[in-house]
UniProtKB/TrEMBL annotation:
One Gene Ontology term from the biological process aspect of the record: methylation
PROSITE patterns associated with the record: CHER
Gene Ontology MF terms in the entry: methyltransferase activity
Keywords in alphabetical order: Methyltransferase, S-adenosyl-L-methionine, Transferase
A family per Pfam: CheR
Domain CheR-type methyltransferase: 1-266
InterPro entries from the UniProt entry: Bact_Chemotaxis_MeTrfase, CheR_C, CheR_MeTrfase, CheR_N, CheR_N_sf, SAM-dependent_MTases_sf
Species for this entry: Paenibacillus wenxiniae
Top-rank taxon: Bacteria
Name the record gives this protein: protein-glutamate O-methyltransferase
Residue intervals passing through the bilayer: none
Enzyme Commission number(s) from the entry: 2.1.1.80
Reaction catalysed by this enzyme: L-glutamyl-[protein] + S-adenosyl-L-methionine = [protein]-L-glutamate 5-O-methyl ester + S-adenosyl-L-homocysteine
Length: 266
């Protein structure tokens, strides 16, 4: 347990990274080291472990501690309609254009966290009468987040940016919680996925990956942008977060016509 809170040698953290990768497939080396190490050091000391070695050993025996580690690592902070003006562009400009090209839209919410993002997409599709003909995938690396997403129950604060008429149509108040209506739940296909190691499906019209890339190294971002481009059909769109503008999108085969929306050339 916690004895001396002295700074641990780098070999302690690098050894932890290797053990996590070997046992789970999660490569923490692809994340920005200073941010990740600071976040995990806080978690480790809070639980009373003075080294990452002892912390990893404890995670192997304690599933609750392991899930807490996953929660801390994946930054599960999400809201419906986060940055509303960007969702309005998706609703009013991007989706109608995509629908003119494809009547059966294939959409992927990558790193969907606890489900607010794919359900936001589903509300927009429903209001445009596109939900029944669309395929909507949602993936995340965190089993705990996916379970919450499938339940579809959220605190009122998560809905603070949802237009009132949208909230009225698609959510039901249940005590302190708001539940996503069953039609939306059935429309979203949740499954586990690792962006850094998985082979991506192809033929997507739209990929939404927001507020995740900021935690990755430049090398990991470069790899992922190439993978996203390959996963989109020609003319498909990648929608990223408000702090994740892609510089030199042409190197990945993208054009930018709207801020934070990138069209695959061809």
């Amino acid at each position: 347990m916690l004895t001396n809170d002295a700074i641990q040698p780098d070999s302690d953290y690098t050894g932890f990274i290797k053990k996590v990768k070997d046992s789970t497939g999660i490569d923490l080396a692809q994340y920005k080291e200073a941010q990740m190490k600071r976040r995990l050091t806080t978690l480790r000391t809070k639980n009373g472990y003075s080294t990452f070695t002892s912390f990893f050993d404890a995670m192997q025996k304690d599933k609750a501690l392991f899930y807490e580690f996953l929660d801390r690592m994946t930054i599960n902070v999400s809201e419906f309609w986060r940055n509303p003006n960007r969702w309005e562009v998706l609703r009013d400009t991007i989706l109608p254009a995509l629908n003119r090209q494809s009547k059966n839209l294939k959409i992927w919410s990558a790193a969907c966290s606890t489900g607010e993002e794919p359900y936001t997409i589903a509300t927009i599709l429903a209001d445009k009468n596109l939900l029944s003909s669309a395929t909507l995938h949602a993936t995340d690396i965190d089993d705990g987040a996916l379970e919450k997403a499938k339940k579809g129950a959220y605190l009122e604060r998560s809905l603070k940016d949802v237009p009132p008429d949208v909230a009225k149509r698609h959510f039901t108040a249940d005590g302190m919680m708001y539940s996503v209506n069953d039609t939306l739940k059935k429309a979203v296909q949740f499954r586990k996925g690792n962006l850094l190691t998985d082979k991506f499906e192809t033929g997507y019209d739209l990929i939404v990956c927001r507020n995740v890339m900021i935690y990755f190294t430049e090398e990991a971002k470069h790899m992922l942008y190439h993978k996203f481009a390959a996963s989109l059909r020609p003319g498909g769109v990648l929608f990223v977060g408000s702090t994740e503008q892609i510089f030199s999108p042409a190197q990945y085969g993208f054009d930018s016509s709207e801020t934070f929306f990138y069209h695959k050339k061809g």
